[in-house]
Amino acid sequence: MTRMLLTADVARIVRHDGLATSLATLARHIADDYVRWDEFDKSARVANHSEEGVIELMPISDSARYGFKYVNGHPKNHRVGLPTVMAFGVLADVATGVPTLLTELTLSTALRTAATSALAAQHLARRGARSMALIGNGAQAEFQALAFHHLLGITEIRLFDVDPAATDKLVRHLSTIEGLTLIRCASTAEAVRGADIVTTVTADKRNATILTPEMVEPGMHINGVGGDCPGKTELHRGVLERASVFVEYEPQSRIEGDVQQMPADFAVTELWRVLRGEAAGRRREDEVTVFDSVGFALEDFATLRWLAERAQALGLGRELALVPDLADPKDLFGELGLRARPGVEALPTREPVSA
Q1: Total Cβ atoms within 10 A of residue 112
Q2: Regarding predicted confidence, which is higher, 341 or 61?
């Protein structure tokens, strides 16, 4: 049987464990899987693009488990009352192919994206960083804000969105968080001025320049989240040229990340090398670092593992007969339950005709 988790089940896990613990546990799962990078069969995600957005499949496996995520990105969906991003995923047994978990991944993707951002910043941001500019205050924004607050100790977040209602929503959700100060700003330039960390998480599917070189200050860490498919960027190429740039999976980031603007020989470092101690993260206090985050299937694999563990421990989800339970594994037709009609006989076997 396959265990199925709905959105309400994932919400119950977070409420039971607490958001801070959930983010920290998820970040550890992601770090653990990045450290065993060589154990995974990896590929860039498969994407089908339209004028309105993109639909993607994100597969990955180790020797024991296979996982994939279905996810979309449709920036105009809010106009028809739908989320920009919607997702579900499957975890399966490699030895048999049996799907063991079918789960929502819309909430979970928001959690894992924020946890990955904070994990990267632990190695790339200046020690003692306390302020962050958050550019784009939509569906992902609260998750980013709280991940940086709980996992890095960020105490001041400077907010800007072209839609003031989005900032209103974020302030309404986070204004009671103890130890967190929210500051509304009138522009991106105002928000990033003096910030230790800058997170850009905008949704428009276009080559935008949310952050330009003159806004970047020595020692900043830039967490670029919104540029995540071909033709969709947030950072001026001049920002990348003056920074040390880190990515999740280079073959995918070259196509989808902000580094799609750069020549093929532009230097980037994959995050797993930093987490394994094979490459340096931040090297100097005045160094500008960029995490060009597009989302990678390994992070979803870690998320599926986390969900499976917590659902099992808490007794959440329901058993789903997604795969036939056959008395004779070679008799799939019998699962239809058809009965032979009276008077219908099989045709006689023909004798072979000699040449």
Answers
A1: 28
A2: 61
Query: Beta strand 65-73 with 181-184: parallel, antiparallel or unpaired?
Result: unpaired
Please say whether the beta carbons of 52 and 72 come within 8 A. no
Cα(340)–Cα(140) distance, rounded to whole angstroms?
Answer: 56
d(CA 152, CA 300): 22
Q: Which of 33, 161, 228, 300 is catalytic?
A: 228
Is residue 196 flagged as an active site residue? no
Quick: pLDDT tens for 34-59. Answer: 999 999 999 999 999 998 899 999 99
Do residues 249 and 273 make contact, with C-beta atoms less than 8 angstroms apart? Answer: no
- 136 φ, ψ to 5°? 100, 110
Return the closest-CA partner of residue 201 out of 227, 220, 181.
Answer: 227
Tokens of 277: 């101690």
pLDDT tens sequence across 55-104: 999 999 999 999 999 999 998 999 999 999 999 999 999 999 999 999 99
In 71-134, alpha helices (H): 106-124
* Residue whose C-alpha is closest to residue 168's, from 187, 149, 182: 182
CA atoms within 13 Å, Cβ hemisphere of 22: 24
Q: Which two tokens stand for residue 97?
A: 């192919």
Give the bridge partners for 223, in sequence order: 199, 291
Total-model pTM: 0.94
Give exposure, 167-194, as e/b (b: 16+ Cβ within 10 Å). bebbeeebeebeebebebbeebeebbee
d(CA 353, CA 124): 78
